[in-house]
Specification:
15 strands, elongated, 27% strand, alpha/beta, 436 residues, TAT_signal, Aminopeptidase, Glucose Oxidase, domain 1, single chain, Peptidase M28 domain-containing protein
Amino acid sequence: MLSSRRGFLGGAGLVGLVGGAIDTPALGQPASGAAAATENTAWLQARLDQYCGFGIKASGGPGDAACGAWLEQELSGWGYGRRRQPFDVPYFEIRQATLSSGEAHAQVIPQAIVAPTGPRGLSAPLRLASDRGDLSGAIAVIALPYKRWATLVDPQVARPLAEAFGRGAAAAVLVTTGPTREAIALNVSTHKPAYDRPVAILAPKDVQPFLTAAQEGRDGTLIVDGRGGERTAFNLIARLDRNAPRTLVLSTPRSGWFTCAAERGSGLAVWLWLARWLSQTDHGVNVELVATSGHEYEYLGGEHYLTVAPSPSATALWVHIGASAAARDWHEFGPSLRPLPSADSQRVLTASADIVNSVRAAFQGVSGLEAAYVADRTTTGGELINVLNAGYKSMIGLYGGHRFFHTADDDMRCASGDLVRPIAAAFQAAVETVLA
């Protein structure tokens, strides 16, 4: 839990849902020294504020669509041709999502792909999944171990959940024990059958009365009510065609469960920085950009993009800027958190073996990213996994999981232009060196 969080961070206000492009100073030779740092930080801060102002970025929802339209306008101003690649994604709009038992009452996150209970909910005995024995007809409470959780595909989530349903549970409540005591939303694959019973996520800060109720064998009521189905999302693809034999691909996700200021916004700001820079410089390659939707569904938008992306043989370099590129770090004071001016180091940089030394040099001194790993099936994360599996050769990729990753509190308290600027500069230096 944050202690008086809004008092700790200042100066980074949110903007409203604005469809227009941000005013940009005339491009030319960059300034130098302190003046350049101030100008560049302000430019990045404006993009962060704009992204955050679109609100929740669930795939195919209004925030995601508005963000895509804004990016189209930004890229149009820099000379990129744009097109949309539509595809269908699951969705669920909540009317009520709660767990109650006696006087205890808490909000929960419906786990996608959602199996709703209906407005009356499911009333059944609460049972701890860790207790051996029959769970038939019960609401199983599954307390996950401490971790920065990300996905339902994780065996530490999938196994106990499958086991609880195998023992007859009528529903399951996952307690995502993590670094903020908040509920952590979990990504899910559309390529696997959805659970046919309700699954919800409960914040660790709210769990104690329900643990007690389960230990005492009392009933609880889980309500997961809303409207769901499928809707259309889109990848935004932009291109500068310079009649070159090969193409530089620059990718980033733009969708996510909540506001995603640091998770998605920091990487998107870097992506825009590089897009503007690449529009002014010619490295002898075409430039193709993609901002994908569908990220929450195990990189679904990235999968769709690979069907239309330049082939591996026609790609000079693939740069992927994934989650938590530049997120704020925090000090722990008991149950309270206080913000730091430095970045969370729980972020990983990978690069193909042919360029990894150049990438390490570009990111020297950048916490968490200075030790770039050779990209392989063990080290690579995010959408770059599919890029690697598709046979692309030269690549750079970043991914991470900051403290407020996949939580509703990932807002502008977790991101700033000051934190993004060194990441943008390092990526620019790496790309420039590799393409030289």
